[in-house]
Amino acid sequence: MIYSLNGTVIHTEPNAVVIECGGVGYKCLTTMNTLQKLPKTGEKAMVYTHMIVREDSVELCGFADTSELNCFRLLTTISGVGAKVAIAILSVLTPEQIALAVSTGDSKTLTKASGVGNKLAQRIVLEMKDKVKKMVPSGTIELPKGNTVIPSAQGNIEKAIGALAVLGYSPDEVTPFMGGIDPTLPVEKIIGETLKAIGKR
After folding, report:
1. Which DSSP state fits 177?
2. DSSP summary character for residue 53
3. Rounded CA gap, 98 and 84, in Å?
4. Across the strands, what pairs with 29?
5. Which CATH number is associated with domain 4-63?
């Protein structure tokens, strides 16, 4: 299992990048969002990878950050969603936007991706919600540092935690970083602030 690649970008093309490590060029399928974050050809870059092994092929998929990697892995567990469809979704939507769409039941947003029709988008939302429910406990979520979750804000906090679960973060991992965040903020803002806090650890 190749966890990551750290080397020189020697070639890019739509939905693919080649990174040379130790004299070997590794071609990775990737998203347009990751391609936009990567440095120019000839410069150093690091991507997190996911290896797909089939009977007739071995493919690497590369991502600029772990949020995108985790979202890709979860998407490909959905029936009817292969690597190409997952990459297409992550090329037009960020992991945060996907997480928010799933947590709010907004399947229409997912149809922006090439190859994703209404039925598939609805299936993605339903199946990902089921997976997230197993990760997010029901009941009141208590935040550290003395924050009290008032009833009107409770829904936003729970939605944010559910959305972050889509990105592979468990409630136990994210709640310590929510202590200084205003629970009355919109869900998308809570998600963004939490990810910023996690990134600074």
Report:
1. G
2. E
3. 16
4. 16, 61
5. 2.40.50.140
Question: pLDDT tens digits, residue range 60-95?
Answer: 999 998 888 988 998 999 989 999 999 999 999 988
Looking at residue 112, the DSSP 8-state letter turns out to be T
At 92, the amino acid letter reads V
What whole-number distance in Å separates Cα of residue 153 and Cα of residue 138? 15
Token pair recorded at residue 152: 């009107």
Three-class secondary structure of residue 16 per DSSP: strand
> Residue with structure tokens 């468990």?
170
φ, ψ of residue 160 to 5 degrees: the values are -65, -40
Alpha helix stretches (DSSP H) within 45-186:
66-75, 83-92, 95-104, 107-110, 118-135, 151-166, 171-174
Helix (H, G, I), strand (E, B) or coil at 62: strand
User: Where in 41-135 does DSSP place strands (E)?
Assistant: 44-53, 58-63
> How many C-alpha atoms does 195 have within 13 Å on its Cβ side?
22
pLDDT tens digit string along 111-168? 999 999 999 999 999 988 776 665 554 444 444 444 444 344 467 888 888 788 877 7
